[in-house]
Fold this sequence. Notes:
Shape: elongated
Number of strands: 5
Number of helices: 12
Oligomer: single chain
Amino acid sequence: MDRGPDSDAQRWVLGWRRLVLDAGLLVYPLIVLVQVAGQSAAVVALLAFCACYIGAAVAAYQFRSRRFWILTGALTVLFAVVLPIARANAFYLLAVVVSLAVPRLPRWGAVIVPVAAAATVVMPWAVWGADPGWAQAAALVFTVLVVVAFAEALRANRALVQARAEVQRLAADAERSRISRDLHDLLGHSLTAITVKSNLARRLADKGDERVAEEIGEVEQLSRQALADVRAAVSGYRDVTLAGELARGRELLRAAGIRADFPSAVDGPYQELFGWVVREGLTNVVRHSRASACVVIVSGSSVEIRDDGVGSAIGTGNGLSGLRDRVAAAGGAMEAGPVRPRGWRLRVSVA
């Protein structure tokens, strides 16, 4: 695939979708502006309301809490200024204020929203003798629900990005520890033997002993073996293994809120190939499926990844195309597509 799960999540956390939602709330002050267009004081207050709202949205985007709450307080004051003029329609402004505040006051949301909705319904009838503000109350409640749901999605995606980064960091630390351990185990004996042999060759050379050439030859062989051991250790560091991808994939699915059903034993002759399959398949599950559960089934000659998501077509991106080429080179066959009643399946088998 062209993008990994990190960039996909960041696209939702920091992308244009968040800006579209923020800009969409400006519809409410525009509705009020149409009603009070002939009253200059109200127009000025509404323009100031829009400016403060944009500032509050930017402050929230930049995690500047103090500035955000100052501007939210200013929005509340401006709502109070417009209320006697626009009356019932002014409560559209209250919908904006509550939508900003509630996602950042989750414990108070269950109190703020009912109280604001009740005031929206009762106040026009009780104060001005007008019809209750049912439409404005409905707009307030549903707007707050949408904004809260979107804020939770942002938090979940941000947590996914952080979890993925932590998994990568832990994997890198584990691999560095393995390399350090392997190099110590592989080279400790070889370097000790080289040192002993070199000292012996030096002493034999000082004595003019003919065995010095034999000892130097053995030092050369030990050096070559040590070099081969280092190359093998580094090569192992870059290898993709089924066990490693299952471990990383389990943590990735956990961070994404997807239940994982993975095998405990992964013995078999196609560890590297099946590791690539699991890596690509689980990446697609997180990016595309919106699944609640994912199962990986491994046998000696096949691996299957199945989820219970939407089952829509993923397309033929670079990831699946590259995986298909890798499977074909190994003499295997790959199947990928939706399954009934819902979900997606990726299966690779090697004859």
